[in-house]
């Protein structure tokens, strides 16, 4: 195996706060802003769980194609797929448990749910054939989040996995499915839906009259009838869907689950992280701590260019080049300092005091070996000093 | 010479888009600042998220007070606003129903309000109508209240949502005034003389691939693509010969401080070359790395955006 920078960083390590989580929890939910490496972190956490001997499923939405290729799983699939153990072994993860992955397809999950909750085949067809249905499963705000929760719960109940790592969508709505299915009920709440259904009389009839009037005037004739048909066919499912949402909420607030916040040192990502932490706390779900990605916090094991001999007669390019490299090193120390302060700040922001920085592995992770490397670094980390020290001496 | 001003300065709407984490909000604020400094009356807007209490865009523009659903001053020639779909729905209902009373009664109905927020494409439709309403605002002398509206569009997945309105909404709707309203909004955002999209990316392999996919999607939906902006590009002080001799020399020392930055410069160069090759005749602007933070960052970048590329 080729030497990686992180090999030098594993000199003095200890188990991180993530180690007991991937070894014992049943569900780990990763949230955070887009572009912070959340999907990669989820995959690496799953891999860490597999390395601990467990049967793990990584559930992800909208992953980087490169990552799918790295893990060797199809982009579109109707069910979870197992990562070839041979590939895992070749990537340095031999003796691991099982690693499965699924790129969630909301339409598939939704159709599965319709079939599960509706026993009458004619009714199933009536729903699936409706023009509105074809759009609702893929497009309704909150539906992607709901299907993630739906899939999570169904797969959890199946008992096929010891650990499920859920990579949430990178939107602020990502935790919406936990909020007493608010957005979902916005469309599916029976009290609301009832207004649209055919009425016999009373106040509801007056309300429906207004709505029918408005809808027909705005959307043209025909639409209201079609909407009624759809909701009528669908309404039998609402009770079960709400019950299901409640079950998901119970699972995710239990001791079996934990939430991990992923961020980068970028100010905008930190703003989002703040938002998510407040949300997690307001929802009363267990919060494990922070993973700080893309940071420059680690400098141990790196030689200082100031101390590298250039010999007696360096070429002009080498002399000027090394001067510029020294300048970059100065910036890297400054970044390391900034990121360590940030890490200290993140720790003080959490009740558990848990936050860790992933080593800078250079660019994006593009292969399974890179993921294995990250997985090991997530569960075994070096305790960083609060700020940078004088340049280390070399050899 | 092509400048940001010559590229975007005459547009009525600039739609800034890109994957999460590429610095869209910073770039949006910088473009808005730059256009405002050039004398254009500019409105900078972000799309609302549920129970949003903070405004990242307001923070980037250094607005101390609260940013809300009505424009707030953010500097000379510059206002900032949070776009609410419900505002668009109300404006639309009033226009469509021609009777304010009925429109207001309709919006008082929880069922209708929720339907509009939850049904496919309707939030985007409300957003679009709100943009249309803001673009149409006029001063008493008849000139536009805002010459240009610069929008920070939500990341990931929904970046093309505005463009997808016709295919999704028009497919589920048989007709009626809503179709006319949507067509009018689309007339604005699909007209290259009035609207331009700006794709923001980082100079790294994966973000550039994603930006190129996004640009393709934008073209496919017939939205005019005005420019590509590469954000956080590192300065490259090295000559090729210096790079080669430095990398050769430090090899024996093992991992060395500064080398990761040098590698980042190399990745950036390769990524920008790929971007430059694929962008066709769409102008590309480069925004450099900076240590500035908060509102100082867009202020600094606005100055550098005022320059141009040959």
Polypeptide structure, described:
The complex is a heterodimer of chains A (395) and B (310). In chain A, 51% of the residues lie in helices and 11% in strands. Chain A is elongated, with a radius of gyration of 26 Å. Chain A contains 16 helices and 10 strands. Chain B is 49% helix and 16% strand. With 310 residues, chain B is of the alpha/beta class. In chain B, strand 7, helix 10 and strand 8 form a beta-alpha-beta unit. In chain B, the strands form 2 sheets. In chain B, strands 4-5-3-6-2-7-8-9 form an 8-stranded mixed β-sheet, with helices on both faces. Chain B has a two-stranded antiparallel ribbon with strand order 1-10. The longest helix of chain B has 20 residues. The mean pLDDT of chain B is 86.
Question: Which features would summarize this protein structure in a list?
Answer:
heterodimer, A: about 400 residues, alpha/beta, Rossmann fold, eight-stranded mixed β-sheet, two-stranded antiparallel sheet, 16 helices, about 50% helix, elongated, disordered C terminus, B: about 300 residues, two-stranded antiparallel ribbon, 10 strands, about 15% strand
Q: Which outline of chain A best applies?
A: elongated
**Helix proportion of residues of chain A, in percent?**
40-55%
How many beta-strand runs of chain A?
10
Give a quick account of the main beta sheet of chain B: strands, pairing sense, barrel closure: 8 strands, mixed
Number of helices of chain B: 13
Major β-sheet of chain A, in short? 8 strands, mixed
Q: CA-to-CA gap between the ends of chain B?
A: 5 Å
